């Protein structure tokens, strides 16, 4: 995203003429060297004068905390100024902030709207985020975060009871991953980890829910038939079921044809767990 941002700034410089090119080139050179104070000093006057490219770059610096204290409100304000001028990179960045819920409540509809504007203004890269986000929204097993649950979790003196729901003949439980996406998992005590199929993991990576830095290595698993398979493992920063939240839960990447499984890396963290088949609830203690 940063390389793309710089490319768009260079194109702006070339089109803006000699009066702007010099200071912008100086700012880019300073930015590349890590001299953020100089880059900020050179870009800010142009941003105040309404140059969309400079506004976009100031937004990026405030979002990442480069040369200034990280400030999502300032980032949003500068991105919005540039985005309202039809500047595609700023529209894309604004979409990302709504997508991730940075400085604003997470809003997939707003994210899609800004991504589409970026595509319409020539930023084809934004289409990848549209494919990934629409896939998450349209998947019947995924819900938009913060939606009111049909049946609220119940907490008793002995633990929490989470209502399960029927999905194609099996009962599943909603699980909120990294405070971003809710997926429906089967409870499987035979699974070592929380298991997510490869194609779903790929979609979560594209959406920014799982980061490259979350991957922690590879592990060999022994299947029920005695065979051994290797799978990539990753750290789920937070995993919420009902009113229970666990941090740093081990996840593994399953085959594309696999099922979302809530395994022992989650279940084993509780004193006890059980399924009430008459009420179709998962009980965690």
Structure report:
The protein has 285 residues and is α+β, with helices and mostly antiparallel strands. Helices cover 42% and strands 26% of the residues. It has helices at residues 2-16, 18-32, 36-48, 52-64, 72-83, 88-100, 108-120, 126-138, 198-206, 264-267, and strands spanning 142-143, 154-156, 159-163, 165-167, 170-177, 181-187, 194-197, 215-222, 228-241, 244-254, 261-262, 273-276, 281-284. The strands form 2 sheets. Strands 1, 4, 5, 6, 7, 8, 9, 10 and 11 form a 9-stranded mixed beta sheet that branches. The protein has a 4-stranded antiparallel beta sheet with strand order 2-3-13-12, with no helix packed on it. The protein is elongated. 34% of the residues are buried.
The whole-angstrom Rg is 23 Å
What is the number of strand segments? 13
- Sheet with most strands: 9 strands, mixed
End-to-end distance: 44 Å
Distinct helical segment count: 10
Strand percentage lies at 25-35%
Which structural class fits the helix and strand makeup?
alpha+beta
Shape: elongated
Summed up, what is this model?
This protein has 285 residues and is of the alpha+beta class. 42% of the residues lie in helices and 26% in strands.
List keywords for this structure.
single chain; 285 residues; alpha+beta; 9-stranded mixed beta sheet; 13 strands; 42% helix; 26% strand
């Amino acid at each position: 995203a940063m390389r793309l941002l710089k490319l768009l700034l260079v194109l702006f410089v070339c089109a803006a003429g000699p009066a702007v090119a010099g200071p912008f080139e100086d700012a880019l050179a300073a930015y590349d060297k890590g001299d953020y104070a100089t880059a900020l000093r050179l870009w800010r006057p142009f941003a105040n004068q309404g140059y969309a490219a400079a506004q976009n770059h100031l937004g990026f610096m405030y979002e990442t905390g480069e040369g200034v204290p990280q400030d999502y409100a300032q980032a949003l304000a500068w991105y919005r100024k540039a985005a309202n001028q039809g500047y595609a990179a700023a529209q894309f960045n604004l979409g990302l902030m709504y997508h991730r819920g940075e400085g604003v409540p997470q809003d997939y509809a707003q994210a899609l709207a800004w991504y589409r504007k970026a595509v319409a203004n020539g930023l084809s890269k934004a289409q990848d985020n549209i494919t990934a986000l629409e896939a998450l929204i349209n998947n019947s097993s995924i819900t938009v975060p913060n939606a009111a649950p049909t049946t609220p979790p119940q907490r008793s003196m002995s633990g929490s009871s989470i209502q399960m729901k029927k999905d194609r003949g099996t009962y599943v439980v909603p699980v909120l991953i990294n405070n971003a996406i809710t997926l429906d998992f089967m409870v499987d005590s035979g699974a070592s980890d929380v298991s997510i199929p490869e194609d779903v993991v790929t979609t979560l990576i594209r959406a920014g829910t799982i980061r490259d830095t979350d991957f922690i290595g590879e592990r060999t698993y022994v299947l029920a038939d005695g065979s051994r398979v290797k799978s990539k493992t990753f750290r789920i920063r937070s995993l919420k079921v009902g009113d229970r939240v666990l941090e740093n839960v081990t996840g593994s990447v399953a085959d594309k044809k696999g099922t979302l499984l809530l395994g022992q890396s989650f279940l084993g963290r509780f004193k006890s767990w059980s399924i009430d088949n008459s009420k179709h609830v998962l009980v965690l203690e």
